[in-house]
Amino acid sequence: MKAIVLKQVGGTENLELRDIPVPAIKDNEVLVRNHAAGINPVDAFVRASEGALNMFLQPQEGEDIIIGWDIAGEVTATGKNVKQFKPGDAVFGMVNFTGHGKAYAEYVAAPESQLALKPANTSYEAAAAASLAALTAWQALVTYGKIKKGDKVLIHAAAGGVGHYAVQIAKHFGAYVIGTSSAAKKEAVLRFGADEHIDYNSQKFEEVVTDADIVLDSLGAPDHIDRSLAAVKDGGRLISLLVFFSDEQKQKAAAKNVYTHRISVVSNGDDMKSIAALLEQGDLHSEIAHVYALEETGKAHEQVATGKTLGKVVVKI
Ligand SMILES: NC(=O)c1ccc[n+]([C@@H]2O[C@H](COP(=O)([O-])OP(=O)(O)OC[C@H]3O[C@@H](n4cnc5c(N)ncnc54)[C@H](OP(=O)(O)O)[C@@H]3O)[C@@H](O)[C@H]2O)c1
After folding, report:
1. For the chain, which terminus, N or C, has the lower number of CB atoms within 10 Å?
2. What is the whole-number distance in angstroms between the Cα of residue 116 and the centre of ligand 1?
3. Ligand 1, pocket residues at CB < 6 Å
């Protein structure tokens, strides 16, 4: 089968198209003929950093290193303990996150517990896109944010991969949604369903919003968390995707009775089924900025690394 193998940690020139054996499946796994891989910022991070590679993939000696966790394709074989899926089923999901997902390949061995059936109204590209990023948005808002109808929710980077799913999921729950982006992406953020838009270049979001029930912060600067804390109301919830809270920030949050959590997304088939249901009923759409061919995976990494993508980047396999 064709796969993109990482020759060594470094630039995108180290992503090489190779012919390698189809993986064997374990008893709890299905073999998926993969048609699309979602590309995420963590993919480029892992490619470029030895520490990140070892932390996320833990590759074994002599094993081909294949990045990627988001897959969408057809089941071609099932392990003997698999109950939910049969050959011919179209499935999608984020597989073996913080492990070797090996998504940049024509065939992927995937645990059945991490997959959902792909809705018929959703393409393989849109389904692969709606894996890690949509799962992160779901777990941030639902699992940790405890979102409910009428909540005021501030979503940073609302035009990005995670952000655009978060806006749609929050609207699905009946929240009032405020999304931040540059002015150029205002129309898109409102199109995703946000009730209000804040241009982070011309407005200080913490001066516009001071009473959010939930804030989703995916930005890298530590002082951004302090500003987000100012935007949450007493008793609200602040979920960080990137920065870990300092002791000082935890104390400040405690003084406001604000729940804080730095999320690490986890593979979860039940959450994928919730995402599949939203896709099926038309409450969730993948905005796809670019679809690249498998041999162009390096270009897909370069696009994601700009930090300016509108929606998602996908590789077609
Ligand atoms: N902890 C976890 O489990 C987890 C899971 C998923 C992702 N993440 C992290 O979360 C972050 C977001 O991921 P992603 O996939 O959504 O990234 P992404 O798709 O690359 O985000 C791109 C978006 O960020 C926006 N943006 C850039 N600077 C901004 C600012 N100062 N304020 C508001 N928006 C800004 C851009 O809008 P403009 O072009 O308008 O600036 C662009 O649309 C990444 O750092 C990723 O590694 C963490």
Report:
1. N
2. 25
3. 40-42, 133, 136, 156-157, 159-163, 180-182, 184-185, 200, 218-219, 241-242, 263-265, 304, 307-310
Second CATH level (architecture) for the domain 2-130+286-316 = Alpha-Beta Complex (3.90)
Neighbour tally for 175: CB within 10 Å: 24
Q: Give the three-state DSSP class for 168.
A: helix
- According to DSSP, residue 204 is labeled -
For 145, list phi and psi in degrees, rounded to 5: -80, -20
Q: Which CATH architecture has domain 133-262?
A: 3-Layer(aba) Sandwich (3.40)
Using an 8 Å Cβ cutoff, are 102 and 25 in contact?
A: no
Report domain extents, the chain: 2-130+286-316, 133-262
Q: Nearest to residue 222, comparing CAs of 252, 185, 265, 182?
A: 252
Q: Whose CA is nearest to atom 13 of ligand 1?
A: 162
Q: How far is the CA of 154 from the centre of ligand 1 (A)?
A: 14
Q: Spell out the per-residue pLDDT of the chain, length 317, in tens.
A: 999 999 999 999 999 999 999 999 999 999 999 999 999 999 999 999 999 999 999 898 889 999 999 999 999 999 999 999 999 999 999 999 988 999 999 999 999 999 999 999 999 999 999 999 999 999 999 999 999 999 999 999 999 999 999 999 999 999 999 999 999 999 999 999 999 999 999 999 999 999 999 999 999 888 999 999 999 999 999 999 999 999 999 999 999 999 999 999 999 999 999 999 999 999 999 999 999 999 999 999 999 999 999 999 999 99
Atom of ligand 1 nearest to the CA of 182: 40
Q: What separation in Å is there between the alpha carbon of 115 and the centre of ligand 1?
A: 25
